[in-house]
TrEMBL record, chain A:
Main location: membrane
Organism expressing this protein natively: Halomonas halmophila
InterPro entries linked: CPA3_antiporter_subunitB, MnhB
Annotated protein name in UniProt: Na(+)/H(+) antiporter subunit B
Pfam family, one: MnhB
UniProtKB/TrEMBL annotation, chain B:
NADH-Ubiquinone oxidoreductase (complex I) chain 5 N-terminal domain sequence ranges: 58-107
Domain MrpA C-terminal/MbhE, residue spans: 676-761
GO cellular component, one term: plasma membrane
UniProt-recorded name of the protein: Na(+)/H(+) antiporter subunit A
Length: 145, 777
């Protein structure tokens, strides 16, 4: 059902993908102080991959991703759970946010950021899982018909 | 310390990798972990002995009063020590017993997770923490019983054990919640000091019944005893560890722990002593019927658990001393005997005692170990089992108004146990040599270390019971007895108890000599037995399945429209109830809107209506899309950029997903009658109306404080972020977000599973048709 797109779509997807992914990272990192955050960034990134998928098809998407979307979900969940643990180490209640400032670049590192990255990965993974599953079904059905 | 215990879960996680590096030495290396825990416990001994319990605090969810505090008093020390020492020995034994087993890593993962949970259970001071560990032991036990998961009988036994204990666990949870409310604390050590407040509370009876149900199912008390013998489908190290020395004692541990809080009433005494005595007698009677060596031991474990419960029910100082000694004695000899049973299984290839005989020549060391352990089981001097049994019988004499009945049952249990001990130890090793499936050979060192050490401890403590004085005294004082001076001795002089022991020795020997006839006589009871508690369990499960089928047909018949209507109706009921009956219902309908807001609202209404009326699917999707964008526009108008972005992105992705499924869907058809359609219109319309009223009433009511004020004020100082939405998501309400993440992940797995399953079905069915067609075509 989904075939390689037209020339315009292919070129646009190729050019837009890195921009969209960069933008999603930008949204992810600035999320704590300005509109953005893991969920929105994850949606933007999924949109980017979806566009690529429409332009080049299922195989190309898997080849580019290199990992299974399901693994992204798993890693995201793991990050989410891991981010709850440092507080224990410092003798505070489970899930208490911890903040550190990286010395040279002055970047605010924190457990909420790790958690947000987890959210990002889960969102991307879940959407891509749904898309690839639907595409696979469409293909097997096409083969059957 | 908590961290040290929790590293056990890390160890469980690492087990497969450890196995890759260390190979067959993995269990030995992993045994170092429980040994180091035992070492730590030994270091704490002076503190515990001095009578001031150790309280190790660690916050978990302070807002809900849930902590990971550990409380180490005499009782917890005794249990934790047993768990870690027997655990280490069992791991050593496993290394030899499951040598070459392909699934050894899996076994090690589960058993070390179990060990950790069990340690957590006995050390936890908080009711919620205790419950979490309690359920973890139940789940790991389920996985271990079903370790040979390709065997349907093992699967069934595992499921039975799980259902019985988890069913009890639910009651326990309810009991704990009520207990915490009545005692005004979630801490076990605090509740232990509020005994009078709890006993006087109106919820006392339901609390007690719920807690007892949980403890009785876990500790296999009558009428829930049937799952324990079936659990013998597990590999022998598991039977030795979980189903005799540790997990089944969790229920008894809980009862002992709550004895100061809930004990000391007639209801407690009656229930515990009668159920305990009944369990004793049932276990002993059923044990005599068995010839399968592990089931024989399992029924005798049931009997021992009954004894422990009964002693707690009697609750006098003597009874509690007997409780502690009997508990220790039982863990030592029963662990050893189970390991011997495993050795016999390996050496002879059979588990039927009647098929074994004359093994003394081939396996002298095993025979020696078995005899020492069995002497302790039989309650004969000079072993710890004798001390325990003497104390038990002494405490029974004249302790209760109805002690005649309890004493009779206990006496029955005692002499039948003696016969069981003789069957286990004498039958396989003495008498004529029989043909066995495998030529018997002496067990290797790895298998013998565990049982030999446990049996040796039984002998040591039996000969020198004074060694235990301190431990017993401090444990008993933790159970709520003020006067702790305890002096254990092997010889108590000539007294009625010794007479009872002698009579039971004679009767037990008689039963052993005429075992065949006794079995035949008991076999006549078979028709009655078949309608026992296990039959009731089967009937209950069958009934549950029927009920589930019926309600699934009714509520979840596979039509999305049906689900939707059901969900909306339930929601309407709840919201309507809250809105009209629970609150003052007032709304302010004065319209105060700008022109563009009215336009957006009108557009939304129009697109909703269009979506309903459209015949073409694509047009309907487009209409719904318009509505989504209007909602995003509303967010923009009310300055919520994050929500607007999210809404836009979600709309976009929805369109992408819809495009993927759109071509595969059938055309719109009329599936419902006009009456049904009008019904649906009414449901949908009234739901919309209700939600509108609800929103208006929320906006009108100013009485409730606005939660967002707190968020706005604290976003920067506490959350270090200016974007309140994101601070709420990842910090203030991060737990909710974590839950949502799991929901999302499950949804993704669900989508994939459903589509994969569906397409596999298609492939299979199409293959089937082609294959079916081929002969004809």
């Amino acid at each position: 059902m989904v075939r390689s797109g037209t020339l315009i779509l292919s070129v646009a997807a190729r050019l837009l993908l890195p921009l969209q992914l960069l933008f999603s990272l930008f949204l992810l990192l600035r999320g704590h102080d300005a509109p953005g955050g893991g969920f929105i960034a994850g949606l933007v990134a999924s949109g980017a991959f979806a566009l690529y998928f429409f332009a080049y098809g299922r195989q190309a998407l898997s080849a580019m991703l290199k990992v299974s979307p399901r693994d992204l979900v798993a890693v995201g969940l793991l990050l989410g759970v891991l981010s709850t643990l440092p507080a224990w180490w410092f003798g505070e209640a489970f899930f208490t946010a911890q903040w550190w400032t990286l010395p040279i670049i002055g970047f605010k590192a924190s457990t909420p950021l790790v958690f947000d990255i987890g959210v990002y990965l889960v969102v991307v993974g879940a959407v891509l899982t749904a898309i690839t599953a639907l595409a696979d079904t469409a293909r097997t059905q096409g083969a059957n018909d | 310390m908590q961290l040290a215990i929790l590293t056990g879960f890390g160890l469980a996680f690492m087990a497969p990798w450890l196995h890759r590096w260390l190979g067959r030495y993995t269990p030995l290396m992993m045994a170092l972990w429980p040994m180091s825990i035992a070492g730590w416990l030994a270091l704490q001994w002076p503190v515990v002995l001095a009578g001031d319990p150790l309280l190790l605090e660690w916050a978990w969810v302070p807002a809900l009063d849930i902590s990971l505090n550990f409380y180490l008093d005499g009782l917890a020390w005794l249990f934790a020590m047993l768990i870690s020492v027997v655990g280490a020995l069992v791991l050593v034994y496993t290394g030899e017993y499951l040598k070459g087993e392909r699934d050894l890593p899996r076994f090690l993962v589960i058993i070390s997770a179990f060990m950790t949970s069990m340690l957590g259970l006995v050390l936890a001071d908080n009711l919620v923490t205790l419950f979490v560990f309690w359920e973890l032991t139940g789940i790991t036990s389920y996985l271990l019983i079903g370790f040979h998961h390709d065997d349907p009988a093992a699967r069934k036994s595992a499921q039975q054990g799980l259902f019985v204990t988890v069913g009890g666990g639910l009651a326990l949870l309810a009991g704990f919640v009520m207990l915490a409310q009545a005692g005004d604390s979630w801490s076990l050590s605090v509740l232990g000091q509020r005994g009078e407040q709890l006993i006087g509370h109106e919820l006392y009876t339901p609390i007690l019944l719920c807690v007892l149900l949980g403890a009785f199912t876990k500790s296999a008390q009558f009428p829930f005893h049937f799952w324990l013998p079936n659990a013998m489908a597990a590999p022998t190290p598991v039977s030795a560890y979980l189903h005799s020395a540790t997990m089944v004692k969790a229920g008894v541990y809980l009862l002992a722990r709550l004895h100061p809080a809930l004990g000391d009433t007639l209801l407690w005494e009656m229930t515990l002593s009668l159920v305990g005595a009944l369990t004793m007698a049932t276990g002993a009677l059923l044990a005599i019927r068995e010839t399968h060596v592990k089931k024989l031991l399992a029924y005798s474990t049931v009997m021992a658990l009954g004894t422990l419960t009964m002693l707690l029910g009697i609750g006098t100082r003597d009874a509690l001393v007997a409780f502690v000694v009997f508990l220790l004695a039982h863990s030592l000899y029963k662990g050893a005997l189970f390991m011997v049973a495993g050795i016999l299984d390996h050496a002879t290839g059979t588990r039927d005692v009647t098929a074994m005989g004359g093994l003394r020549g081939a396996m002298p060391r095993t025979a020696a170990v078995a005899c020492v352990a069995a002497l302790s089981l039989a309650g004969l001097p000079p072993l710890l089992g004798f001390v325990g049994k003497e104390l038990m019988l002494t405490s029974l004499l004249g302790a209760l108004p109805y002690s005649g009945l309890v004493l009779a049952l206990a006496f029955l249990g005692a002499f039948l146990t003696l016969a069981v001990a003789a069957i286990v130890a004498l039958r396989p090793f003495f008498g004529p040599v029989r043909d066995m499936p495998v030529t018997p050979h002496e067990a290797p060192l790895g298998l013998l270390v565990g049982p030999a050490l446990l049996a040796g401890l039984s002998l040591l403590f039996g000969l020198l019971p004074g060694l235990l004085d301190g431990l017993v005294a401090v444990t008993v004082s933790g159970l709520g007895v003020a006067e702790p001076g305890v002096h254990l001795a092997l010889w108590h002089g000539l007294n009625p108890t010794l007479g009872l022991s002698l009579v039971s020795l004679v009767l037990g020997s008689l039963v052993f000599c005429y075992w065949g006839r006794v079995r035949l006589a008991l076999a006549r009871l078979e028709p009655v037995m078949r309608h026992g508690p296990e039959w009731g369990y089967e009937r209950l499960m069958a009934g549950l399945v029927r009920l589930a089928e019926w309600q699934t047909r009714w509520l979840q018949n596979g039509h999305v429209r049906h689900y939707l209507a059901m969900t909306l109706l339930v929601l309407m009921g709840l919201v309507g109830h809250a809105l009209f009956l629970r609150h003052r219902f007032e709304i302010d309908v004065s319209v105060d809107a700008y022109f563009h807001e009215v336009v957006v609202a009108g557009l939304m209404a129009a697109s909703a209506l269009t979506a309903c009326l459209m015949r073409s699917r694509l047009a309907a999707v487009a209409a719904v899309g318009i509505m989504g964008f209007c909602i995003a526009l509303t967010f923009v108008l009310f300055s919520a950029p994050d929500l607007a972005i999210t809404q836009l992105l979600v709309e976009t992705l929805t369109v992408v997903l819809l495009v993927l499924v759109l071509f595969r869907l059938p055309r719109f058809t009329r599936l419902s009658t006009p009456v049904e359609r009008w019904r649906d219109v009414i449901v949908a319309g009234s739901f919309g109306l209700l939600m509108a009223l609800f929103m208006l009433s929320v906006l009108t009511a100013d009485a409730l404080p606005r939660i967002s004020d707190y968020m706005v004020a604290n976003s920067q100082p506490l959350g270090h972020g200016h974007n309140i939405v994101n601070v709420i998501l990842v910090d203030f309400r991060a737990l909710d977000t974590l839950g949502e993440m799991f929901v999302l992940a499950l949804a993704a797995i669900g989508v994939q599973a459903m589509l994969r399953f569906h397409s596999d079905n298609d492939v299979v069915s199409s293959e089937r048709t082609t294959r079916g067609d081929r002969p004809h075509g």
